């Protein structure tokens, strides 16, 4: 087992976006610190395995989880999967997993991310009045377009798309409207995957993070400079 820290994703103070790799031939997982946090563990205190991952998934979502894994490993199909997990403390979380398979020197390796949207999705439902909602009101048209892009990428509803925007915003220390503009620009130039395309939603998130990093103001924390 390996633990990844500087993997292109930055901690925001809350466990939002985790990063992982998985080598199916050896059942070997590499988790970022945030992956451990989302599952309720201190970084490095458990060895991540497929059995451990499946034990934390809500029983009603386990069958779909195995189906996603089989589609990825056996048919090399990128996936996104909205589901529930139980943390080590027994808390129920709503998460979205995405991943894709790459051939690295003849060895299949899965690269992916896990987004914890539990609290953010509740905010969307209850329309919490805060700076993010203020951003939404002021830049509604662009943000609605970006939500549409995320609905397409992840096959989620509008509330979940809004939660994802807020998660990516918090995790990159960027405003929601800036993240929305990146997504809309990517969609306009056909740089987002379609449902029948070969590019995964996971790769789209990596591109989004790369773009946010490249365009971040000098005073902003560098993306990838912290664990998670």
UniProtKB/TrEMBL annotation:
It comes from the Bacteria. Residues 123-184 form the ANTAR domain. Pfam families: ANTAR, PAS_3. InterPro entries: ANTAR, CheY-like_superfamily, PAS-like_dom_sf, PAS_fold_3, WH-like_DNA-bd_sf. This is PAS and ANTAR domain-containing protein. It comes from Nocardioides cavernae. The lineage of its organism: Bacteria, Bacillati, Actinomycetota, Actinomycetes, Propionibacteriales.
């Amino acid at each position: 087992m390996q633990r990844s820290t500087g993997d292109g994703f930055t901690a925001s103070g809350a466990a939002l976006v985790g990063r992982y790799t998985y080598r199916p031939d050896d059942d070997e997982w590499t988790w970022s610190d945030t992956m451990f946090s989302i599952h309720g563990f201190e970084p490095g205190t458990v060895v991540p395995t497929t059995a451990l991952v499946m034990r934390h998934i809500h029983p009603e979502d386990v069958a779909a989880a195995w189906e996603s894994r089989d589609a990825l490993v056996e048919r090399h199909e990128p996936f996104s999967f909205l589901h529930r997990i139980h943390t080590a403390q027994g808390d129920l979380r709503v998460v979205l997993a995405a991943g894709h398979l790459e051939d690295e020197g003849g060895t299949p390796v899965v690269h992916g991310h896990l987004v914890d949207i539990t609290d953010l999705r509740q905010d969307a439902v209850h329309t919490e009045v805060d700076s993010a909602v203020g951003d939404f009101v002021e830049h509604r048209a662009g943000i609605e377009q970006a939500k549409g892009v995320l609905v397409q990428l992840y096959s989620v509803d509008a509330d979940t798309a809004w939660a994802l925007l807020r998660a990516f915003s918090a995790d990159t220390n960027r405003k929601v409207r800036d993240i929305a503009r990146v997504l809309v620009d990517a969609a306009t130039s056909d740089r987002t995957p379609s449902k029948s395309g070969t590019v995964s939603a996971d790769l789209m998130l990596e591109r989004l993070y790369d773009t946010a990093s490249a365009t971040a103001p000098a005073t902003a924390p560098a993306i990838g400079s912290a664990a998670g």
